[in-house]
Amino acid sequence: MASGDAFDLDVAIVGGGPAGLATAAALLRAVPGVRLKVFEAAPAYREQGAGVLVQANGGRALEALDPRIMHRLVSVGTITSGMVPYNDTTGEKLPWVNGKNPMADLDAMGYANVLVLWNDIRRTLYDALPPGTVQFGSRVVEVAAPEPEPEGGDGGEGKDGHKQQPAQGCFTLRIADTGDAAAPLAAVRARHVVAADGYFSRTRRAFDGEAGLPAFHRTVLWRGSLSREEVAAAGSRLPDALNPALNPEGLRCTHFWSPATADKPPTGPPPRGIMLFPAGPLDPDTTASGLEGDAARIVWNVFFSVEDEAAADEADGKPLADRSIHTAGKQGGAALARCLAANTHLPEDLRALLAASPPERVTEHGLYKHPLEGFIKGAWARGRLVLLGDAAHTAPPDGQGVNLSLEDAVVLGALVRAHGLGPQAFSEWEAARQPRIAAILGDPTPQGSIRMPLIRNAAFEPLWSAEGLEAAGSLPPDVAAEARQAAAEAAAAAAEAEGEAAAEAAAAAERKAVLAWSRGEVRSLVLAKLEGRNLLVSGPRPDGMYLIR
Ligand SMILES: Cc1cc2nc3c(=O)[nH]c(=O)nc-3n(C[C@H](O)[C@H](O)[C@H](O)COP(=O)(O)OP(=O)(O)OC[C@H]3O[C@@H](n4cnc5c(N)ncnc54)[C@H](O)[C@@H]3O)c2cc1C
């Protein structure tokens, strides 16, 4: 961001992670013409060694933003067919397999879980935004609340949402140019602020101090990734479990090593573990990626329980100076060295894989979570400020962090469309989100029997119209024509009814036609990935068994 830049905005979004980017896309759909910017501290997006599972709820949320965003992610993602467990000292394969049947998922949900590189989510959302929406290298260092509203002011701005607002009603954000320490701070005035600045949200701290911080989850996590070429270039080889020559399904499963043994399955979260899974197109030559710089990756996560934050850091005695996910702990060679030092028990082929990882993609950080008791009125929505994504509800890395952030964005978009930008939409959003997120993150059952139906049956109001999608090039012309025809027929059938009912019937018919096309596309993409491939047979999983909850 050039020093001295000044913006007057309807909405300033702090943080360009998945939550901030998806919210930008949702608000641009909900309030056409809204003056909005995303301020992102990082100078650019770069791949970090992380992959995420886009589950049905995240996929549906992306679809509600724009079906093409989801299709693009599905096309670069990997469909795995289950989790294979091993003992983490002997390497012995354990007798239960947490098998998944992507075909059954497709039939039941019209969707199958897709593993993608975490950065690909950001890149795909970023590419869907108008150029210039994201201001990189812009760290928000201060957010000052607006003057109190004049008498009778501010129930929301009405559906246009972007009319000129009086200056006294604006937040003031001070923004540092992270690429130029000597640059003067830029000031931005914004009528609304969306805090999407991650789990140690500076915006949240500005209003709540330490009280808004998440609690340490007694776990240290290392993440990294590497391609098969990088494994070979390091003079290493794939671990036997992943080696297609030894195990044809090896690169199509998730693999999980823990201290469990065949006669001692885990009955609670294991104290340590390592998970390996493929992400990104397995074969970049035959799978159209469309994303520059993509390559198939083997992603690894290693976690280790510790007593407290001090223990997490005792290896080198330095306190965690700034507990933001990006600066906590270590990254690079130091993180990799600590990971190897803390995990000497692992079988040699796994250690060799970790050691071969490019250090620039290795991160280490402590895990934190916002206690569910803090999910109370006013915690996430305060007048014209709203906190979402990890800034509101950081969760352990059990697969829902990204998915819930995407949900946050589309639910907010739908409420803003209904009520206009402002406190009413924000507080209704909070009231809708807190019980659902608490139910998903707080599910005490080992099998996830509360959370899984909520995830699988997630449904969101689409933020698009067929016309808008067509104009944006997101809808093939024949599908647009079909949708128009379906709408016209539905409107004619409802002609007897009141005008509004006919319009609603037409909109519903149009949506149905677009969704049928969208889900057909997902099905073809998934089937193409599954073609010719055996699915794992699910083995009986011991009762009460946890993986990484
Ligand atoms: C490196 C990494 C790996 C992850 N891996 C996984 C995974 O494997 N599985 C999983 O489920 N979840 C993972 N997560 C967590 C998951 O990505 C989050 O739950 C999800 O991304 C929530 O998104 P968010 O946008 O709220 O927060 P984040 O993804 O943390 O994004 C916050 C953004 O805000 C920016 N920011 C922070 N402070 C400021 C500021 N003051 N001014 C401007 N910008 C600021 C940050 O640079 C960042 O881009 C990972 C997160 C990170 C950072």
Automatic annotation (TrEMBL):
Coiled coil in keyword set: yes
One MF annotation (Gene Ontology) recorded for this entry: monooxygenase activity
InterPro entries linked: FAD-bd, FAD-dep_Monooxygenase_BioMet, FAD/NAD-bd_sf
Coiled-coil zones: 480-512
Transmembrane regions listed in the UniProt entry: none
The entry's keywords: Coiled coil, Monooxygenase, Oxidoreductase
Domain (FAD-binding): residue spans on this chain: 373-415
Disordered: annotated span: 145-165
Name of this chain's protein: FAD-binding domain-containing protein
Organism, scientific name: Edaphochlamys debaryana
